Each structure stands twice: as structure tokens, then as C-alpha cells.
């Protein structure tokens, strides 16, 4: 194999595929990234067997030559070193030459690296997916959907299926749900489909995969293709494929958990409420339980308090528009803060159904998302 | 005690004194910061018994009222909480009230914190220093002196005196030296003195103290007063005092270590040489010994190489202007990189006296600083 390539473009793609590579893998070849040069361009692959990323660099783009292939071939190089090396190379171009025994030479400017490569034949093949179950949505929308759900997945391995985000369709709309059983984040979005009758449920993508995907997809409205199979999902972008395995097991039915009634509804400004909770959390964090108390007062005020026996107490009264009964409840303040941070609307409603029942936070201007929380018993 | 104060100004000073507070102290009162309100303004103190910082906030500055004292007094509050709380308070002003039993109320905007304070009488008094041994230098100069020396102090506690930077005078010039016995950084600077005959030596300031001081002093040329006593040093700025204990023990005589002869001198451009070494370090770091090899070639080139048996080899040829004999030497690349990063001159000379002897790196345009390194034996 022998090719030369524009350094900046190569660095970007090497960094993208390296996101899939784990240093803690038990399969030695997966510590490397696979580089293939054929007559169309360069293909890079990185994988930790849960996530696989494949990128393609064409010979030219918009009339500018990016790659010049002098001899086709392939090699696997240690991802960690290779990514750092290409980033630090001095020249505008990089030449990569593979000789006998996978001995690889990288030249750029005055710099010459001789690296020990690995046998590309040992590198596992990526899954070939049937492209039956396919839908599309814009990249920036997908990025938002991930941001507004993935924080709520469980970090405990006791119920593995809860460490993922569940995807399902409902009347043609995509519904994404994450819950750790104390809080739930739900996000709806419209999608484009080839087959208008497309329906699916219980497609659970690991939270970690979505977090990595979110770092790669860009903030533009180019469409991303999503292919779903029995145990894999594939996100297809221009010149980049992102594969993730799906989590096994039955995702809980969450629709019925969401209360449809209300005993008390408080309307609050999102950002000031968030800041009030952050101040209250300074003390409740100390006790490591994050408990914050909310109490409605007369005259349209809500009192937020939290107590740390050693350090002290914080009290804050904030204005609200209230409907329904007087209310007193305690909750995990950190969970509410996490949710308020991803709500883009200026005002929210908190809908309570009782001091011991789950409550809902939702924006006042649309129903694209909602957040559900269990209260905390403090007696 | 009862006073109100401008929040932004208070936040800044609370953060400054908190830099001296360690959470790992064995003296409980030192986890707090001391706040004193008297008729002149507010004094804040933080200390970990090695470093102490005292700041003063006057009643008004440039005609603007900053503090309004309603009742004089003092209190000690938990530094970690207090610093976070004042940073997050919603109002433009903060009101602080101490009642019985050190119960402290902090009000700002809609927020009310009730904190358990500690007895200010228990807080240790700061040392009272005789202001005999005093010199002055601009803040930005001091910041540079610290930056260009402190990285070279020892991190090993086997010879405690080497964990500090040594200050001494030589013919009216201040000389600052740091060494971990493998490398040495030396920085000279002129100082202003009250007593023209001022001389001192073996004033060893802990590296950690200087690193903290460096975060506080500003990038301007206002003069800073330095008071040196038997076992303390005090840096006096406008409204801020920074005390540090001095290290005990005899600092090694380093002047005689610096070679005055040269067998080979290489002139190199600082930044390209630094980048070459950073690339070479990518591989030598792997073996955890950081060894980089340098060899002069014919025709005005220097070859830099490093090898990691598992990963591979890197070779780079760079241009130089050479005087003297051909040369081959190995060194700890990380140490050289550390030094090159703090050299502000565009070109340097590396002065060798033999493959097994210490060598010097110095800027070509002045003699304010030099760096000395031991070579590494590779056979």
C-alpha cells in the first residue's frame, strides 16, 4: 500500500474513527484502526465491537485532490499512537507506505515514522445490514434528541436495558425514552420514512453509543439515514457509517406511567428556577442525597429549601402562577436540574398529582418532550 | 457583625483567599476562611499553614461604595461552601449577618442561606514580619520568573529543599534557581532595593507556593514588595498579602555546575525544535523513559530519533548552524520540552561539553536565563 493524503482531512477522519476504539478491549486487533486504500479512496475503520465507525475519504472533493493512491492495500495501526502522530506531523501532506511484514512508514515534512503494523486480515468485518427498516431525520434534530434524553439513562448495570434509550414509533412519530426508574425523559420527533407504514418498538440503543454519535454528527440539517435490524442500528451520513449494537431485553412500557391528571400545576421561568435549584443543591449535595424541598406559599410564591445538618440551610422564595391545591413535596434536585438544562423553552409547567406521586415537567409552548420524576420520601 | 458588599468584588477576593485553603488540613478551623469587618473595610484570610493569603476590601474604591459596615465583627465560614455560595448568589449585593453562636445569615436577591460559622478566636494569627530584607519587582516580571523556573523543581520528597526555588543575590541581581538534580532552570532579574547593599542567599520558596502566587498576581507592571525573614516570605500587593513558609536546609551550590566551555554548539530555532521533540516523545514516552537521541550529521543537519520496541521508530532531520566537533547524545526529551516551552526567544544555542557531560540551552539574544540538563546513558 502506498498513498499520500491531505493532512488536515486525514486528521479529522482518524479522530472520528478513533472515538470507537477502546484501550480496554480484550481483542488486541481492535486497539488498531484499519486503513484500506482502493481505487476510490481511503476507508478507515475503528471498533470496540459495541460501536464501529467507518469513514471514507474520496480521491477528490469539490475538484480538490485529497488522496493520491499509488498502490492499493490495507493495514491496521495502533489507534492511540497513530491518532497522535498524524495530529503532530509537520507537513501539509502525509505519505503512508506499507512494506513487508506490515512495516509502515509515515512521512510528512522532515518527519519519518516507522511503525509496526498489524495484519488487516485479522480485523473483524463490519456487519452487513439489510436496509429494510429505514427512516431519516436531520443531523441537528438527532443531536437534540440525544441531548434531551441520554442524560436520563441508568448508569447501573443491574437492569442493562435501562442503560439505553428506547426508540419506538407511535402514529408515525418517533418517540425516544430514557429512564433510570427514578426519572424519565421522553422526546417526540417527526421522521421521514420510505415506507409510510413503518412501525417498530423496543429498539434500545446504548446510551454510550449515542453519546459518541453525538460528538460526530454536525449541527446542520443534512439528513441522516437510520437502519434498524434485530440487533444492530446503523447511522449513515455522507462518508461516515456509525454502527451500534442494540441492547437485549424488554424495555418497560412507560406510556402508562405518565399521569394525565393534575392536582397542582406551577408555572415557572426555566432559567431562574434552574439557578434556584443549583443554589439549593450546594447544601443538599453535602448530605449526598440531593434532596430539595418545595412548598407552595400563599400569594403566588413557592418556597425552595434544602438542609445540610453540618453546613446550614438555604431558603428561597420564587414567584409562580399556581393552579390547584397547596402542595409540599421533596425530590432529587440533581435530576430536576439535569432536565431543566436540556429544556430550551423559557417557561415550564410542573404538574403534580400528589406528594407521593410522580410529577411531570414540560415546556408550556409544545409537547415535543416531557420529564417525569419520582418524589423522595423524607420521613 | 453585619455588612453588605458588592457581590462581584466579594467573589473575586473570596476566590483568591480560598486558593490557600486545603481540604486535607488536619486543623479543622483552617478549612474555613476568616472574615473580619472593621471601620476600614473587610479583611479575608485563608491558610493551609504553609501558605496564607490575606485580602482587604476597602469601604470604597475610586469613589464607588463597595462595602457598608453596619456592625463590626468577625466569623469563620467553611471555605468550600462559602466560595461556591457567593459565586452563585442572584443579587448584585450580598448581606452578611452574624448572630449568636456564630449562626450566619447570607442574603442576596431572593436567596437566604443560614450557615453554621466557626469561632474566629480559634483562627491562627498570621506571622508579623520585620520588614528588613525587602526588595521590589514588577508583578509581570515575577510571574515570568516563576513560570521559567518552577516547572524544574523536584516532585520527590527525598530531598525536600529541591522542591523549592532558591533565591539569592549576586552583584545586586536576583538569581532564581530550580533543579531536580537531572535538570536545572536559572533565571536572573534586576530588582529594586531600599538598601543598595542588600544581599541574601538560600531563600528557598516551595514550588507549590509560587504556583499559587502565580495564579493571583496580575499581568501588569505594578511593583510587588517582597519581605524575606528567617523562615517566611511575604509578597505584598495592593490589598493582598501572600505569605509562604520557606524550606529548611542548604540549597546546593549550582553556579559551579554550569559549564563555561564548549565542545559543540548547535544553533536551532526554538519552536520547530520543540515540535520535533514533541513528535519524538510520542514514541519514547511509551517506554516510560522519555529518551530521545540527537546526532549531528554532515551538511548542517541534526538527526533526532527515538525508538519504542513495540510501536516503532521516528527519525527527523533538522537544520542547524553548528560549531565544534561532531556529537551524539541521548537525553530525557520531556525535560528539554519543558524548558523550550518557557523560552521566549526565537533561537537557542545548545552547548555541549561531551556526550556524558551536562549541556546547556540558552537563548541567543540575552543571558537572563539558562537551562542545564544531564544526558542519559543509553548503553
UniProtKB/TrEMBL annotation, chains A, B:
A GO BP annotation: DNA strand elongation involved in DNA replication
Claim: Nucleotidyltransferase is one of the keywords in the record: yes
Protein's name in the database: Beta sliding clamp
Domain DNA polymerase III beta sliding clamp central per the UniProt entry, residue ranges: 137-252
Subunit and partners: Forms a ring-shaped head-to-tail homodimer around DNA.
Signal peptide positions on this chain: none
InterPro entries, A to Z: DNA_clamp_sf, DNA_polIII_beta, DNA_polIII_beta_C, DNA_polIII_beta_cen, DNA_polIII_beta_N
Biological function: Confers DNA tethering and processivity to DNA polymerases and other proteins. Acts as a clamp, forming a ring around DNA (a reaction catalyzed by the clamp-loading complex) which diffuses in an ATP-independent manner freely and bidirectionally along dsDNA. Initially characterized for its ability to contact the catalytic subunit of DNA polymerase III (Pol III), a complex, multichain enzyme responsible for most of the replicative synthesis in bacteria; Pol III exhibits 3'-5' exonuclease proofreading activity.
Domain DNA polymerase III beta sliding clamp C-terminal: 255-376
Any Gene Ontology CC annotation: DNA polymerase III complex
Superkingdom of this protein's organism: Bacteria
Organism of provenance: Halalkalibacter krulwichiae
Subcellular location: Cytoplasm
The keyword Disulfide bond appears for this protein: no
UniProt keyword list: Cytoplasm, DNA replication, DNA-binding, DNA-directed DNA polymerase, Nucleotidyltransferase, Transferase
Domain DNA polymerase III beta sliding clamp N-terminal: 1-127
NCBIfam families reported in the protein's UniProt record: dnan (TIGR00663)
A Pfam family recorded for this sequence: DNA_pol3_beta_3
Protein encoded by which gene: dnaN
GO molecular function terms attached to this record: 3'-5' exonuclease activity; DNA binding; DNA-directed DNA polymerase activity
Stated family: Belongs to the beta sliding clamp family.
